Amino acid sequence: MKESDVRRQAWAMPLTSPIYPRGPYRFVDREFLVISYRTDPELLAAVVPAPLVPAPGAIVKMEFIRMPDSTGFGDYTESGQVIPVTFNGQAGTYAHNMFLNDDAPIAGGREIWGFPKKLASPCLRVDKDVLVGTLDYGDIRVATGTMGYKHRPFDRDKALAAVTGANYLLKIIPHVDCTPRVCELVRYHCQDVQIKGAWEGPAALQLFEHALAPVARLPVREVLGAVHILTDLTLGLGEVAHDYLAGTSSNKIDS
């Protein structure tokens, strides 16, 4: 294989059999359960990287997302915490942590955008009259969220705004000596969004301490509400909003 062939094909690993196809990536019948809650502001501020700023109210959104039909990634489920933030005064959300049950979207999400993904066992299902989201890390339960199933319609314009807003990720790729080769704040949007259903209802959320799935480090102080959204969308590719290594003469980051 010539060097030119390597450069042409070098967009994912392994070189001759990438774990995921090239994007864009379309999701059909993507289903969200999003439970919003209030946490401790000091703990929240400690995990949001500058130049992002936590939005007022110390709010966290615990998400359980069912993705039965996605281009290249197949059928999988995801759970994690996102934090409302501002960047240069503009509202958005920051993905604090994410847990998935499928290797391909873990690799693609980390390598392309910088999604903070780990392998775990999330689930989103209906149990009689309740929508239930759970997250297990190995055999250990770390989160349980519930919402009354389709109790009230949720405003579709608000649902569309929630799904299409700016999202921020901290993309980190190490050098061979474990110094940072890439350290960037990435911004992306969901595109071509079709809201197929949106509901709200009573909700509850429990988070449990775990060393490697630390969702409980942003503890629940007050559940504010929950929404259930069914949608088709395209996951847009990202752009660099801030480069932490720009202007440095080495890969070392100043404190």
Q: Give the biggest beta sheet.
A: 12 strands, mixed
Q: Radius of gyration, rounded?
A: 19 Å
- Counting helices, strands and paired strands, the structural category is mainly beta
Indicate the low-confidence ranges by residue numbers. 249-255
User: Can you tell me the CATH topology?
Assistant: Acetoacetate decarboxylase-like
**β content, as a range?**
over 45%
| Strands, total number | 16
Average pLDDT for all residues = 95
What's the CATH architecture?
A: Beta Barrel
Count up the helices: 4
- Quick one: CATH superfamily? Acetoacetate decarboxylase-like
Distance between the termini: 43 Å
The CATH class is identified as: Mainly Beta
Question: Can you walk me through this structure?
Answer:
- The protein has about 260 residues and is mostly beta strands.
- About 15% of the residues lie in helices and about 55% in strands.
- The chain has helices at about 5-10, 40-45, 105-115, 155-165; strands at about 25-40, 55, 60-70, 75-85, 90-100, 115-120, 120-125, 130-135, 140-150, 150-155, 165-175, 180-190, 190-200, 205, 220-235, 240-245.
- Strands 1, 2, 3, 4, 5, 6, 10, 11, 12, 13, 15 and 16 form a 12-stranded mixed sheet that branches.
- Strand 8 and strand 9 (about 140-150) form a beta hairpin.
